[in-house]
Design goal:
Blueprint lengths: L1 H7 L11 E5 L13 E3 L13 E5 L6 E2 L9 E2 L6 H4 L5 H13 L10 H16 L6 H6 L3 E3 H14 L14 H10 L12
Antiparallel strand pairs: 1-3, 2-6, 4-5
Helix pairs in contact: 1-7, 3-4, 4-6
C-alpha cells in the first residue's frame, strides 16, 4: 500500500476484512519454531517482511482513489463522502471507519490524495486482528519474566502501533500514511530498510 501511495497517490478507502485475502504459503512446513524462541525484555525483535508464511492480497478497488499516470490530470476515484448509505451504516467497526475517512477528508475534494485514509484502514485491519488475539495488558507485561516469545513480542509491537493511531482524533497523528508506518517500522528496527525501499 505504501508503494502504491508513492507510485499513484493510491488510497484503498474500503479495506475491510472482506477485501483482504490471505493465503498460507508454507505448504505443510511447520516452521522451525523460531517464533517460540525466547528474547530478552529489551531485545529488539525484527518482524521482517515475508516472515510469517502468509501472503496477503488486497482486492476490490471500487471505492479507491488513484492517479494512474502518477500525475493529477486523470484521477480515478469514487466520491464516498456523497454516499450517505455508506456513511450511515451500522453494526461493525468498518462503518465507523467510513465516517472517520469522511472526517479525514473534510472539505477536500474526494479526488485529492489523503493518505490518512490508508492509515485508518490499516488501523482497522490491525484492530480486528488484535481483537481476535489474547494480548497481555501493560500491567501483566510488567510482571512477567524477563524473557518472552518472539510471537508475544510481535503482538506487543502491533498493540503499541495500534495505540499510535486514534481515528477519532485526526489531529496530532504520529503516522499519516502507510509510508510513514513503514518508516516507523524501519526506525524501530521491525524491518530492514532494504526490505521496504519504495524505489
Amino acid at each position: 500500500m505504501a508503494k502504491a501511495e508513492v507510485w499513484c497517490g493510491f488510497e484503498h478507502r474500503d479495506l475491510h476484512l472482506g477485501n483482504v485475502c490471505a493465503r498460507d504459503t508454507r505448504r505443510g512446513d511447520d516452521g522451525d519454531g523460531e517464533d517460540l524462541g525466547l528474547v530478552g525484555e529489551e531485545e529488539v525483535v525484527e518482524l521482517g517482511l515475508n516472515r510469517t508464511g502468509v501472503e496477503v492480497t488486497i482486492i476490490d478497488y471500487s471505492l479507491s482513489r488513484a492517479a494512474p499516470a502518477g500525475g493529477t490530470e486523470e484521477v480515478l476515484f469514487y466520491d464516498f463522502v456523497k454516499d450517505k448509505q455508506l456513511l450511515q451504516g451500522e453494526g461493525d467497526l468498518q462503518y465507523d471507519v467510513y465516517r472517520y475517512m469522511a472526517a479525514a477528508v473534510g472539505q477536500t475534494p474526494a479526488s485529492d490524495f489523503v493518505p490518512g485514509t490508508n492509515v485508518l484502514w490499516l488501523w482497522f485491519v490491525l484492530r480486528k486482528l488484535l481483537d481476535a488475539t489474547i494480548i497481555l495488558s501493560k500491567e501483566a507485561r510488567g510482571k512477567r519474566e524477563k524473557k518472552v516469545t518472539v510471537v508475544a513480542r510481535t503482538l506487543e509491537v502491533l498493540q503499541d502501533t495500534l495505540e499510535l493511531i486514534n481515528p477519532g482524533e485526526m489531529t496530532g497523528w504520529q503516522i499519516r500514511s502507510a509510508g510513514e508506518l513503514l518508516d516507523l517500522g524501519v526506525e524501530k528496527r521491525w524491518f530492514k530498510a532494504e526490505e521496504v525501499l519504495l524505489a
